[in-house]
Write a structure and sequence with these properties.
The chain is α+β, with helices and mostly antiparallel strands. It is built from twelve helices and 20 strands.
């Protein structure tokens, strides 16, 4: 009865006992699944009946049956232990992925034993992060001696954030399924889920041209405008004689001049105010994250602006500046993946960043769920004698869906979440 009680407690608190064993790096030798518990109960009933039976002949027969059942039970335990000896496990997974995208994770197992095959290996991986825990599984039917086998599972994570993969637990119940042995491999890996980028609409293309033109106009006003080389053309009356391109003129036999055009490409600085006091307000900010992610990905030589800096005020204040285009984009997207909203973000520090950056041909775009409060704060800074407030060129854009949907289309998972909330 004691063995039956211990088996029942092991089955009931199996997950908890496994977590404790993993925390203390202790590998449990053998577990009893439900089938094993039933088998053990039958053995104990037969043993008790054999020992307490009145007829010695019947008792001897029951002891014989008990012995016939105990033999496979013990042999199964030894075989299960052998199934997990000398195994090497590897995981191949991407380091980054977009929210809502489907990606694959590969699990490889090598059987380093020279003679014995491994059968029915169940691999349990663990994913934990802001979107909750998942426990994907793959099954290896047979791995021959010296063989390496690979299996894959698919993941789709809809919540941005920093996730952790691991540890991996490999278990087997071969051959009879009445005993289980598992082995834990501490293969930990970080997985960054970027916010899915929104799709920029034609309304934003027009808006970015307006912002770039406004920045260039401010430079013209302050006498700091820049021109860039556009091409070489024939001389026209009124052209500056200093613009004559003598080498082209000698080659063509006509007076040729260099044509300069104003630089309309602006530098964009994004300030993101993650103010939220309720869970609904936090969800509202996800579209702003997707919009900012799209601006990071679409900053190119063909756009009217070049992303220069991102500042995020939320649970923590984050400032990302370029150290190369690819590195800056990766750092910006990682910051967007990890940032969290807060009921008390550092608005004053965020505005100070915008005032210091609002010079030259820079466009300062401030995304905030409280535009009225931001304007009042700017007025207070101007009244307090803060320099650069009037000419800072800060463009305030509300993060309300009605405003952002004029410039972008939400990614698919945000549309699904919105439909589910209705």
């Amino acid at each position: 009865m004691l063995l039956l009680t211990l088996a029942a407690l092991t089955l009931k608190f199996r997950r908890r006992l496994t977590q404790i064993a993993m925390r203390h790096r202790f590998e449990s030798r053998l577990l009893l699944p439900r089938e094993g518990l039933v088998y053990l109960a039958m053995m104990l009933v037969i043993a008790v009946a054999a020992l307490t039976g009145g007829n010695p002949d019947t008792g001897n027969m029951l002891l014989l049956v008990f012995g016939l059942m105990a033999g496979p039970f013990v042999v199964n335990g030894w075989i299960v232990v052998l199934m997990l000896l000398k195994l090497q496990v590897e995981r191949t997974a991407p380091e980054v992925a977009e929210a809502g995208a489907i990606f694959r994770v590969a699990i490889s197992i090598s059987n380093l034993r020279p003679l014995l095959s491994s059968h029915l290996l169940l691999v349990n991986d663990q994913l934990s992060g802001p979107g909750g825990d998942q426990h994907p599984q793959v099954l290896f039917m047979k791995i021959s001696p010296g063989e390496r086998r690979t299996a894959e599972y698919q993941l789709r994570i809809v919540t941005r954030g920093i996730y952790s993969l691991g540890p991996i637990k490999v278990s087997s119940q071969f051959p009879l399924g009445i005993g289980e042995k598992h082995q834990t491999f501490q293969l930990q890996q970080s997985l960054v889920i970027y916010p899915a980028p929104a799709r920029l609409l034609s309304g934003w293309r027009l808006r970015e041209d307006e912002l770039a033109a406004a920045a260039h106009s401010r430079m013209r006003t302050h006498g700091a405008a820049e021109d860039e080389f556009y091409g070489i053309r024939e001389y026209r009356a009124g052209d500056n004689h200093r613009a004559v391109h003598w080498r082209s003129s000698a080659r063509t036999g006509q007076v040729m001049v260099r044509e300069q055009r104003p630089v309309r490409r602006a530098e964009l600085v994004i300030l993101l105010d993650l103010f939220a006091e309720t869970e609904a307000a936090v969800q509202e900010l996800e579209l702003a994250m997707s919009f900012t992610s799209a601006l990071c990905l679409h900053s190119s030589a063909q756009s009217a602006w070049q992303l220069q800096r991102i500042c995020i005020a939320g649970a923590q204040y984050v400032r990302v500046e370029p150290a190369g285009t690819a590195a800056f984009r990766e750092a910006a997207l990682r910051s967007l993946a990890d940032c969290q909203a807060s009921p008390a973000p550092r608005l004053e520090q965020l505005l100070g960043e915008g005032l210091r950056a609002g010079r030259g041909r820079r466009v300062i775009l401030l995304l905030t769920p409280r535009p009225a409060t931001v304007r009042s704060e700017l007025q207070r800074l101007a009244a307090g004698g803060q320099t650069g407030v009037s000419g800072s060129g800060i463009t305030i854009m509300s993060t309300e869906h009605s405003e952002l949907l004029r410039y972008c289309a939400p990614p698919l998972q945000l549309e699904i979440a919105a439909a589910g909330a209705v």
